[in-house]
Amino acid sequence: MKKIQRIALIGGTHGNELSGIYLVKKWLTQQTLKQWNSLDITARIVNPRACEQSVRYIETDLNREFGVADLADMTKSGYEALLAKKINIEFGPKGNSPYELLIDLHNTTSNMGACLMLQRKNAFTILLGGYVKHHMPHANIYFQDNVPEEKQNFLLTVAQQGVTVEVGPQPNSVLQQETLDLMEEMTRHILDFVELCNNDSSLEIPDEYDAFQYSENLHLPVDDKGQRKGLVSCLIDQKDFQAIEPGQVVMETFSGEKITWQGDYTAYPLFVNEAAYHKSHSAMTLSRKIVMSCRDYK
Ligand SMILES: [Zn+2]
Q1: How far is the CA of 61 from the centre of ligand 1 (A)?
Q2: What is the pLDDT of residues 277-288, one digit of tens each?
Q3: Is the CB of residue 182 less than 8 Å from the CB of residue 103?
Q4: Residue 295 domain-assigned (yes or no)
Q5: Domain count, the chain
Q6: What's the pLDDT at 151?
Q7: Which parts form a coiled-coil structure per UniProt (predicted)?
Q8: For the segment 78-137, what is each residue's pLDDT rounded down to a tens digit?
Q9: Based on the domain organization, do 191 and 220 belong to the same domain?
Q10: CA torsion sign, 57 to 63 to 65 to 66?
Q11: What is residue 246's three-state secondary structure?
Q12: Is 106 annotated as a binding residue?
């Protein structure tokens, strides 16, 4: 595996997700990054104005501004659109970045626990998932490498490779100790893994592990005026990564009609009732459980 030297550690992509912001601040203050002295880590809070106001973004979602066409579009001049271009200069350019890894720190209001979100399936991500799962058995490892290319407009795409640490449930603009601790623990494991790989040290990685694979999104029912007609069922709310069988109730209309999962596979929901997705009326994302084998890469 190619050695990874230059790493960007990013907090505050969303200004109201406090764990990443405070983890970066804490580690910069305490000079924690020196612990991985073989790595060249740049830690940064990337949307300071949104952080100051404790809002997700000022004008547009920064984490959707990194499409190749958007970065090249000089007519896009909103606050986050310009910020994305600046970040692309500092940590990119996308497609040709010297940063081998970008770790983007996020919170969710959904009950996802500590979730490692991986954009690709390759030796690095598969072994990283195994390493994190071995050291944090309660963590959820989620692959979204099958999300369509045109949706690959996340901030982490500016580097050669990116991973997201997504921890919840935590309300927006709130900092909770348990959530911060989980984020710190997972981020430490990621950096340890990179350093151990670089040093060709032996790694504690299981032969295989359970993970989740993105499958689709479920939306709340809306009327022709775009008003919601229902909500996520209490049987599902807060039950991220718990199995939903075909025919099981997932939502309910305000008139009491049950809406069932119509798929033909056992689904595992995440981002259930996520606050940030209110505009799209997203009810939840669904995934399938998969078993990842590390044998071929060890
Ligand atoms: Zn976020």
Answers
A1: 9
A2: 989 999 999 999
A3: no
A4: no
A5: 2
A6: 75
A7: none
A8: 999 999 999 999 999 999 999 999 999 999 999 999 999 999 999 999 999 999 999 999
A9: no
A10: positive
A11: coil
A12: yes
Decide if 223 contacts 253 (C-beta within 8 A): no
Please tell me whether residues 112 and 33 are part of one structural domain.
Answer: yes
Q: Is 166 a catalytic residue?
A: yes
- Spacing, Cα 218 to ligand 1 middle (Å): 19
Q: What range does the domain containing 26 cover?
A: 6-206
State both tokens at 35.
């612990």
- Helix (H) / strand (E) element for 24: namely helix 18-29
pLDDT digits (tens, 9 = 90+) for 12-59: 999 999 999 999 999 999 999 999 999 999 999 999 999 999 999 999
State the distance from the centre of ligand 1 to the C-alpha of 108, rounded, in angstroms. Answer: 7
14 is in an annotated binding site: yes
Q: Give the amino acid at 169.
A: P
The H-assigned helical ranges of 168-247 are 177-198
Residues 18, 161, single domain; the answer is yes
Q: Distance between CA atoms of 247 and 259, rounded to whole angstroms?
A: 9
